[in-house]
Amino acid sequence: GAVVSQHPSWVICKSGTSVKIECRSLDFQATTMFWYRQFPKQSLMLMATSNEGSKATYEQGVEKDKFLINHASLTLSTLTVTSAHPEDSSFYICSAAPLDTNSYEQYFGPGTRLTVT
Amino acid sequence: SQQGEEDPQALSIQEGENATMNCSYKTSINNLQWYRQNSGRGLVHLILIRSNEREKHSGRLRVTLDTSKKSSSLLITASRAADTASYFCATGLGDYKLSFGAGTTVTVRA
Fold first, then answer.
1. What DSSP string describes B23-77?
2. Is there a contact between B41 and A45 if contact means CB atoms under 8 Å apart?
């Protein structure tokens, strides 16, 4: 149980285009999902907290108009990178916290590698 | 922002040996978690230790937490080639948000 999927697993896009990444909790409901980005050989940096039915909370320095987050249901959050540029190339990982637990465990997706050319 | 600092940055050991890595953090925490990441893949949750716990075991993993020193250690006993990965500590303040350390890259030689 507690599986989180991401789609696509990798994507290559041209500069100036937008890319949508989906994060789904497959066998549990999650009111809260998190989006991270990871540069090669570096740690995960939290970008934003996605709450079902409300606006996402962005970390300092993350442009909310560039990284659009939508958490439309208890099992799906999407991250759209708008007007992508080569510096947005990164590994994007989501995680989901189950609805009915106080264990503080969260489950991570397999990641999406974005390459902007 | 990253709160955890991990030491060492990289570790190379022989199969069968133990691997120890440390994590230090700066502020009070609710819990500390360890994750494993294989190259280019997502994170796998290994173990969570709460601030009122001092030691926890899970299979070949042993985690300690010293809140007075704001540090934690992860010990992997009898390492295997499959343990080759990056290991991250992450601190939680109780609201599910995690702050990750820089990670330790472990290479287990056959």
1. EE-SS--SEEEEEEE-TTS-EEEEEEEETT--EEEETTEEEEEETTTTEEEEEE-
2. no
Residues 6+ apart with CB under 8 A from B2: A43, A45, B99, B100, B101, B102
CB of B65 within 8 Å of a chain A CB? The answer is no
Are B1 and A62 in contact by the 8 Å Cβ rule? The answer is no
Cα distance between residue B46 and residue B86, in whole Å: 12
Judge whether B14 is closer than 8 Å to chain A, CB to CB: no
Cβ neighbour number for residue A49 with a 10 Å cutoff: 19
Of A36, A42, A104, the CB nearest to B96: A104
pLDDT band at A100 (very low <50, low <70, confident <90, very high): low
| Residue of A106, A107, A112, A115 to mutate when probing chain B, most B C-beta within 10 A | A106
Tell which B residues from 85 to 104 touch A, by Cβ distance under 8 Å. Answer: 88, 92, 94, 96-103
Angle at A14 between CA A87 and CA A88, to 5 degrees: 20
- pLDDT tens-digit map of B79-94: 999 999 999 999 998 7
